[in-house]
Each structure stands twice: as structure tokens, then as C-alpha cells.
What does this fold into?
Amino acid sequence: MESVRDTVVRMARQARDASRNVAGLSTGVKNDVLLRTAELLRERSEEIRAENEKDLAAGRERGLAAAMLDRLELSDRVLDSMIQGLREIAALPDPVGEVDDMVRRPSGILVGRMRVPLGVVAMIYESRPNVTIDAAALCLKAGNAVFLRGGSEAVHSNVVLGAILREALESCGADPDAVQVVPVTDREAVNVLLEQEEYIDLVIPRGGEGLIRFVSEHSRIPVLKHYKGVCHAFVDTGADHDMAARIVMNGKVQRPGVCNALETLLVHEDEAGSFLPRIAGELMDAGVEIRGCERTCAIVGGAKRAVEDDWPAEFLDLIIAVRVVKDIDEAMEHIARYGSRHTEVIITPHYGNAQRFLREVDASAVMVNASSRFSDGGQFGLGAEIGISTTKLHAYGPMGLKELTARKFIVYGAGEIRE
Amino acid sequence: MESVRDTVVRMARQARDASRNVAGLSTGVKNDVLLRTAELLRERSEEIRAENEKDLAAGRERGLAAAMLDRLELSDRVLDSMIQGLREIAALPDPVGEVDDMVRRPSGILVGRMRVPLGVVAMIYESRPNVTIDAAALCLKAGNAVFLRGGSEAVHSNVVLGAILREALESCGADPDAVQVVPVTDREAVNVLLEQEEYIDLVIPRGGEGLIRFVSEHSRIPVLKHYKGVCHAFVDTGADHDMAARIVMNGKVQRPGVCNALETLLVHEDEAGSFLPRIAGELMDAGVEIRGCERTCAIVGGAKRAVEDDWPAEFLDLIIAVRVVKDIDEAMEHIARYGSRHTEVIITPHYGNAQRFLREVDASAVMVNASSRFSDGGQFGLGAEIGISTTKLHAYGPMGLKELTARKFIVYGAGEIRE
It folds into this structure.
């Protein structure tokens, strides 16, 4: 039997070999592949459900938590959303071949930049098998081969979804090797994958902080990732309290388990006495636990005293840290120290403070008078999102199709030479 | 005494601490720093020459080759070109703070992208001490702190140039720690540097293939690099022989020691019988050695028979590999197999072949009817060049000031929340 190492290396090489084929596909063929995949998901739903049931049964046997089993399940609703996602990605403009920045240089040559696929993109993810379809669709639309390594608890689901993607490629005349789903659950597969810098151009891990740290510490391939989203809202002096309350409540309560939810509220000392009792009431009515600094606790009855570990915490839960600050400088100092470069918000009526915050705060998304929950590829107009980067190389913030491409220089000459 | 490790870690931390200061400097102050550095290079030329003489003396003692000593020398001509370079970089537009792609989204928010510095950029380079000034100037102009590790044979020169840069920063009210020059020649310094992913955002190695391989294999920090430039020119059927000869001669002879020089000539079989004798004559008159495939050797008297190792070779010398190919497909196959993703050229009168070549060839610069020697930041209009990337993440091709920055999302709202 082929060893785990041999399997992973063979699949990575096959993806690399297929990457030239998929890079050269027309937009029409790529869209056909996505739409054919959507059809097959419908036609094969019985088979998909049967494979998914194997994962669910194994999960129940291993005693997985209900929330985990829920994420694992390919229900009708989840299948519908995968089909919908495929149609949306097919409808997005194709970034490949796009040319811009074309200029004529003094030498006479015409220089521009053309978008090209990256080559082979690997995704390493946990639990949710729908990522198999979403990630493959985005990578293929951007002309990349894709190498998928999902959670071991979803291996049957991922393998059948991979087979459907490969069948769709083949039926459209494209190379099925452009999609590779690692069929083994052995953890060694991840280690071997991360060594294949000869065949894989980019790794995107999606999952918990542990997975992401492991990948970025062991990878010899460039990694795009974010560890966590510790997003702050700073309520400046003179801020409209209605607007501030609306933005804070939306950031904290609408969907607390996501990375662009709000974790810390910073309040200018001028507003603390009036704004804090109001927002604390709204938050507590919504079941949010408040962990405040000393000054916050003096104003808000029922607030717990925050400890040092609360400031850099990503609660992902109905908990908020609250601190009173002297001014915008102290707020920005706090963010520089505890922020995670994800999303930072100021609520202010002051033009100068808005501009300073936008310019000086180092985060992938910086907002004035808007909810942190907008920090998302779809909301920002990128179309679908393959992930978020909180480091600055290659991409910073939500990543869409363009972030799965590079730009090469193209030159139209008429026989020019360099003097 | 401080250990090598402690020195490097301390300097990396100082660079990180200073990076916030330099990121916030106005364009005017950054330009003043560059112009003040230019003045100091002139005022302190005696001292610079004296330190440089120490390196030269040590090099002569160690028996360095004349070419190496030549590259090491800070002659009046080299100092003048450093001063000129500083003035040119001061004159370039500042990329930091530039906002584009601003759109209003259906939610009402206005989303755009603002260029921001990367943070701390490390350069690891060999020999030429003028890189100390060029690289620091580009990094500072893009708002980055810079961590410089030059060749051990140039340490005295690099340290005095670093001191001048720091003095210029200080005299303009900026943090001098934004420039760090590693003062130790110990090789361990490079290993320690490459582990400082907490403090350094990007490493750019410049030098021989050995140095670049070492850096990219050992770095935990993202690396932008190119190993070599194996550039091809393909003379298509029907090509204008005068144009083809001009482009081949310019590519091979004008400056054979650089990475955008031509290494391999591919000739369509329709043209081989007439074009090869002509170009071979011109090349041999210029002292170029021809290493040809079997068909080339049958046509060109005096051509050596190429061996397999000649096809992927970066000669950096008056040597050219020549191969006759059946058609554009065979030419592109050859390039895909042996090319280095640097610069590839087609000489063709055919619209369709030109478009196919531009689209299908995977290289950082792809050209029609122009010399490979144009593949350069200055020629492409980027201003000065910090290096060339032949991998696709973050930058592909010549890198200028913009490639030393990232783009963050900025949002102007009016109280919008996500439904």
C-alpha cells in the first residue's frame, strides 16, 4: 500500500501538473465546471448524504459535541447553500487575464500587468465539509489547481465532494487532477503537505488558532492566515450615543462567534458617565457579560472586573471587555498593544480624529462610524471570500478571487532595445 | 560582551519599535531624511573612504579577486551614484496613504483601500556597500524600518553608511532606530535574523544563488527573491530578421552579467536556415560562444554541441544556448521546462502567437518584440527597484516602492450596521 507520504507527494505533483491546464481554461469552461458541480450535488445528494452519515456515525461514536456534529452535517439546507455558492462564484467576473496599469514608457514599449493564477493552492481546514466545495470553486475560478485537506472527522464527506468536483472537471474537458482531496486521516499528511513547496504555491489554513499556528510554524510554503479577531470599537468624545449603541450592539450581539464580532469597547472619559450606563443596560439585556476596567466598574453596576487576559481575548461569545480611555491616543495605544490587526472601529463626529484613526491604526480593516461586522469579502464587494489575512504580505484583510492571483508584467514592443 | 544572538535580537526589536515612528512620518520629512543623507555622504566622504579602505585592505589581504574588490570600492563614481539615487528616490511619489478602489456598497458604507508600510524589512546582501544606501532609502520612503545585513567583507563600509543614515534620521526629528546595520561579520547573525518573525515582516536577499537558497530554506519570515534569470528569446516563423537580431544582440551582449540578459535563443525551424547563420556571425563577432542543439550545429559552423546542463543554465557571460524548435508550442514547452520565471521574449509578426505567448508563458515579465533587458523597475516605470521576485506571492517581477507596502481596507460609514 502507498504510504501517507507517497500519497500526499503524488497528489501534490498531480495538482502541479494539472495547474497548467486549469490556468489555461476559458472563463466559460470554468463556469461550466462550477455549474456542473452544482447539478451533480443535486443529482448525487443521496450518495453525499450516505457518505456524510458515515462521518456523523463515527462522530457520534467518538462522542463529538452536538455543535461539532451540527457543523459536520450536510443537511439539505447546507447542500442548497453550497449550490447557491457555486452559482454565485460562476457569476463573478474572472480575474484571470485582466490587464491594467498599461503605460507607454519613454523607450517606446507599452508595459502593463496581467492577472495570472497562482498555481496550486492548498487549503487545510476543520470540520465543515462545505469548505471543500466553496474553496475549490474559488480556486478553480481563479485558474488554480487546489489541494484540499479537511478535518479527519469529515473525510468521507470530503472525498465524495472531491469526486464530484473531479467528475465535473472531466465532463467539461478539463483535467480532473486540478482537484485533489487527501483521503487519509493521518496527521502526518499535513506535515508532508507543508513540505511540498516545489508543487504548492500557497497554503490557507482555516480553523482554530491551534491549527493555524501549527501550519504557519511548520510550513515551507507561504501561508495566508489570521489567528484571531480581537476587534475594538472606540466611542470618541462627542459621539452620537444612538449611533454608538447601534454599532456596539451589532458588533457584539448579532453573531458573537465570528472573527469580525466586537470584543472590546473603548469609551472616551467625556462620554463614559452617560454612555456606559446606557450601553451596559442594552448589553446586559441581551445577555452580554461585561468585564470592565476600574473606572467602568465604578460606573456600571454588575460589571465584572477585567483581568489582564481579557484585553487580548477573542471571546467569540456574549462577553465584552470595556475600558475608559483619556483620549484617542490612549485608545490607539490600547489597540496597538492588544489588537490582532483584524478590524478596528471609531465612532466619532470629529473629522480630524476620523482621519487620524483611519491612517494611524494598523489593522486590515479600519472603520469610521460603521459596524465591525462589515469586515467581510461579500460586504466589501470582493464577491465570495476565501479567508482573511491579518499579515501584510500578498493580502491584508478579506481575500477574494483577486487575492488568488498574481500580476505579471506584459510588454508590447515594436523592436525596441535598451540603449 | 553582548552575544551575536543578543545583538541581532536587540536590533530587530529596536527596528520594530521604530517602525511605528517611520510609518507616521510625512512625505516631506522622509524626503528630508533622504536629501540630508545625500549631503552627509558628500560631507563625510573622507571618513567613508577611510572605512572603505579598511575593507579593501582586508580583502586584498584575503586575496579577493579584482572583480570583487572593484564591487567593494566606494569610489567617487559610486558615491555620486548613491547621492543621485537618494535624490531620485526623494523625487518619487510617496505610496503611503494612497487610497484607491473606493466604492459605495449597497449597505451604504464607502469602502476603499489605503497603502500602508509593511513594517520592518530586512535586506541580506553581498559585497556592494552601495546597497546599504539604496535599500535603506527605498524602505524608508515606503515608511518601513530597515534591518541591513551586508557582506562581512564590507562591514566597515556598511557600518559607517548606516551611521550616516541614522544621523540623517535624527537630524530630521525621526527615530534613528529605523535603520539597523548589523555590525558583526559572524554568519550566525543571518541565522538569528531569519528567526525574528516577531519583529521582521519581510526578508529580501540579494546576491548569488547560494545565499538566496540559504535564506529561503532557513527563514521563518516571508522571503521575496529570485534565484536566477534564465531568459529566452523565441524567433517565430515570419519574424523580421533585423528586429530579431537587434533584440538578441541587445539581450546577450549589452550587459551579459545581469539577470535580465538573454541565455537561450529558440528559433522556429522555418527561420533557422536563414536566421541562424546571420545571428551566429554577429554573436561570434561579439565574442559570444554558441552552444547549439543538433540542428543548430548542423547549420552553424563553430557552434559547440549543447549538453543538457546548458538549457537551464544562467551563464551570466558571453555564452548562449541555441535550439531549433518546430513551432510556438515547442518553444513554450521548452520555456516551461527550463525557464526561471524571470523574463521571456517572442519575436513575431503574428497577432495570435503574440497574444498566446503573453497569456500562456508563466514568467514575471513576458514580452513581444522587445529586449529582455527592459525587465527592470526603472524601465517599467516603477522608479527605483528593490529587487525582482520570481515567485508569485505579494510581488511578481521588478519591485518598486509599492511592493514595499500593503493595502488595508478603510471604511467611511454614517452609522451603518449589518442586518
Notes: The mean pLDDT of chain A is 96. Chain A has two domains: 4-225+398-410, 231-379. Chain A touches chain B through 67 residues (CB under 8 Å). The longest helix of chain A spans residues 4-23.
